[in-house]
């Protein structure tokens, strides 16, 4: 309601001089055509015959002085009841006695026109009884409204509203109140307010059921498609993974992103694709309906993995190798360690502190800064599977590494895998653990009085041969050449290989940048102070066939010594 003192649009009532009271529009002819015609018949604005109904609605205004006080609602958007009729100070309008009767009848609108049904057994209940029975609060304005209406009209049963059920579901609650001429439920009498709340509850239930019916129809259409003869014929030509993927696409393609649902098999297939190539998975996600990477991460977090031996991993591995050929089960065990940042936190789900030294079979209070990993890899068939990990404070000791190594090999042999070798770098702990196992094997044969003809060590009476990690061998040769010269015999001639020869070759080759023979060699490959010693690729590029052949040719030309 507007309380400003600026001049308003002229009131359309004849000879009305007011300039400051709030103005009100005619009722909307689209929604309240009968009420609009009644206003027009009463007021008859000047030259209204020349206007259409909507032009009258948008052009003419009526000031507030022409409405009775009980029809004015202070603070509301419209400022009037939706059944309000202008009846005051209309003496200047010439009208017949019939029109006066119509005006009088319009001014006596009551709740009977609200078209609400009130059960007879509830019509005489007091405010306190209705609050106790239905658990709702009846406002004071409702009592006031009830007192203004005649008692016999409130108790009278009327016909229900004839409203399309679909429109009732979709309409906003405010439209229900507009139909009875109010803007708030607090303006209704207690019984009407109770019925209004029941009606809104039923409309919500009807909307929910309508959504379910729509969902069931869509699901029925998809089920009929999947059961059709043509679809079944196509599905018989594909494997199980493709079949499940097609069903998942039919189920989720048309859904919104947050409404898609995936089975466990769908998530496992998507996880395999995601781990194979994250970039490729993002591209496939734009084409197909696939789970979000965050969903896949949550799936991985549900797997109960702990440091040390995890039975769940070996049980899963046992199921996967059951159908393998004997040669496909032959594998090697690789293990290595790497440094990590110190980080301690409390895992409340497992009630355990993570970030301290943990070998699975024992823990300590030391902060972990190294992780040790054991991985299996097939020889005849290319497959890989991490099987164990531990955390240690500093590099793992040879005693702990020896225990972990034997336990992992024993569990692999028990599930049917044929572990024939181990691969590791030349770390001090690795060398000490392997030498200790070889020593134990030698002592075993001495106690048995047998000759030791094995190349490796025994675990559960199975020979395990230790191998060097070839990339680390290359790095070891490079690191030795940085500080020492290599003496060799080639074609019955003694020779000396020094890292200085490689440095001179690089300087000679890079003297003409546009005519370089080994363009990939940089200072980070050759200059000792700039070498990245952890990069195996830098080492292999220095020892490549191209570099070696060019150095031999230059030495034969006599320009390179």
From TrEMBL:
Keyword annotations from UniProtKB, A to Z: DNA-binding, Metal-binding, Zinc, Zinc-finger
Cited SMART domains: DM3, THAP
THAP-type domain location: 6-89
Pfam families: THAP, TNP-like_GBD, TNP-like_RNaseH_N, Tnp_P_element
Keyword Transferase: no
GO molecular function, one term: DNA binding
Keyword Zinc: yes
Protein name: THAP-type domain-containing protein
Taxonomic source organism: Photinus pyralis
Origin organism lineage: Eukaryota, Metazoa, Ecdysozoa, Arthropoda, Hexapoda
